[in-house]
Amino acid sequence: MKINLIKTICYISIFLLNGLELSAQMFNVKINNNLHTENFDGRLLLLFSNNNAAEPRFQISDALSTQIILGKNVDQWAIGSTQSIAQEAYGFPKERLSQIPAGDYYVQVLLHKYETFHLKNGKVVKLPMDRGEGQHWNLAPGNIYSKPIKIHFDPKNTEVVQLTIDQIIPPIIEPTDSKYIKHIKIQSKLLTEFWGRPMYLGAHILLPEGFDTHPNVRYPLAIYHGHFPSDISGFSTTPPNPNLIPDTSARFNITGYNKIQEEEAYQFYKQWTGPNFPRVLAIEIQHATPYYDDSYAVNSANMGPYGDAITYELIPEIEKQFRGIGQGWARFTYGGSTGGWEALAVQVFYPNEYNGAYAACPDPIDFNHYTTINIYKDENAYYAKSDFKDLARPSHRNYLGHINSTIKETNQRELALGTHSRSGDQYDVWEAVFSPMGEDGYPKRIFDKHSGTIDKSVAAYWKENYDLAHIIKRDWPKIGEQLKGKIHLYVGDMDNYYLNNAVYTAEDMLKQLKNPSCNCVIDYGDRAEHCWNGDHTQPNYISRLRYHQMFINKWAEEVKTRAPKGVDLKSWLY
């Protein structure tokens, strides 16, 4: 049913007295009748901003510039009723309303909706189903919110601010097919059974030049793992827009990065369609879950059998529809960050189904270095403790080592966004992937979100099931022959999230493997940040835009040494 929205009704119940704005410590929130057609579950978020540069919902981050967010759970928010946000709401970077300094603020509320899942094992959980946006609470279609209003807030006062939610985030427009780019979506039998409702997997497929004019050729599959892609990344058949207004990239301190991205996308198109480029099917997978923008491509107690679903349901269907070779020797994986971990993980867990993993800046592959935490030896995730000093563990730095956030701050923000690992963010998704399921149906915490105390029983589970360095060493006698020569690791030695530390210890282990030797490739970028991918000839802001052309060309050479005897290595190189 189409909902007709009226103009914003977002008001303060007691707003003016003798010409002065009133301040308040409690907020009452109602939903406009046009939007409140059913009872809602979810996370009610109250957002403060001391500026009007953007809506408060777009100003929450781990950076020093972050604004303020507080959250509370709502269950069965009944039609016509009011929710109050007061001292019990948990926030970031201020934990409670009473800690927010008095002043003028733009305030906004948003309800991040939850859906009820009846899992195969009988557990019932409430989670935010992805709705095509890649698990972003501030962009998720169907979430409802108010427009920002300006108030004067003083935690010492007790007047009530009344806010009305009257906006809804619209649906995502799905991409359309073109000559080179196609799209596929399938319902997964395995995941549907696990979650107790229809669950889907999708992919964007970049067809090789000459796909239509070479109807008898079957192609290798290049699988690019990463965060939820809206379409094939970095590919454009049109030249850069000469009238594009240059933007500024704060991360790379570059003006006109948008122009650089457009030029790189067009250059990739010309390489892809030009002579001497390997003719392969390049795909980017969509596998968002109720916990994150992707599943980490492995089987998980909390996520379900995503590894099997991708490997045995989605990939064969893609190869069937688009003339893939359909054999493990003709598939390879690559990606950075989350995608780097996934590229290595699927190679390790499915050694015969893939023939090469090119993992850039991978998420922690050795939990002795879970970013800056050792989950096996450390007692606390937030602090390195001694008799007389507690040292906060950092979570993010720049290439000079300057720190702008800590492990505690990052997890405080996640807890404000959602309890039970429901923030849709990094530490919560690691729990959702790596942890056993708790009695309540939600992931067991690796550490307490308030105190930082590490649960060693959960750490032991992580080690045996998802610590990739440990698993490779443990299982090498069984899988070594299938993995030799297939592992490639690339990371900057100043990775923003300290991911290079886990690669160092993994490298030490890999070099000691015998019978057979690993024949692995491990490379480091000097002073390179997240997500350096092995290109010493270009700055990171360029090389990060060239994953497809870098690794497809690299694999096309290496496969000659790893392919079974007698297979066709020529027909797809026209």
Structural notes for this entry:
The protein is of the alpha+beta class and 574 residues long. The chain has 3 domains: 16-168; 181-366 and 469-573, Alpha/Beta hydrolase fold, catalytic domain (Rossmann fold, 3-Layer(aba) Sandwich), CATH 3.40.50; 368-464, no CATH class. Helix content is 23%, strand content 24%. The protein has an 8-stranded mixed beta sheet, sandwiched between helices. Strands 4, 5, 7, 8, 11, 12 and 14 form a 7-stranded antiparallel beta sheet that branches. β21 (299-300) and β22 form a beta hairpin. α4 packs across α8 (468-483). The longest helix is centred in the middle third of the chain and has 17 residues, at 257-273. The chain is globular and about 80 Å long.
CATH T-level fold name of the largest domain = Rossmann fold
Radius of gyration: 25 Å
CATH class of the largest domain: Alpha Beta
CATH superfamily membership of the largest domain:
Alpha/Beta hydrolase fold, catalytic domain
What is the total domain count?
A: 3
Structural class: alpha+beta
Global morphology: globular
Q: Please give the order of strands in the largest beta sheet.
A: 15-16-20-17-23-24-29-30
What's the total number of strands?
A: 30
Number of helices: 11
Give the CATH architecture of the largest domain. 3-Layer(aba) Sandwich
- Helix fraction, binned, reads 10-25%
Proportion of β residues?
A: 15-25%
Calculate the terminal CA-CA distance, rounded to whole Å: 51 Å
Nearest-integer average pLDDT: 94
Defining traits:
single chain; 574 residues; alpha+beta; Rossmann fold; 3 domains; eight-stranded mixed β-sheet; seven-stranded antiparallel β-sheet; 30 strands; 23% helix; 24% strand
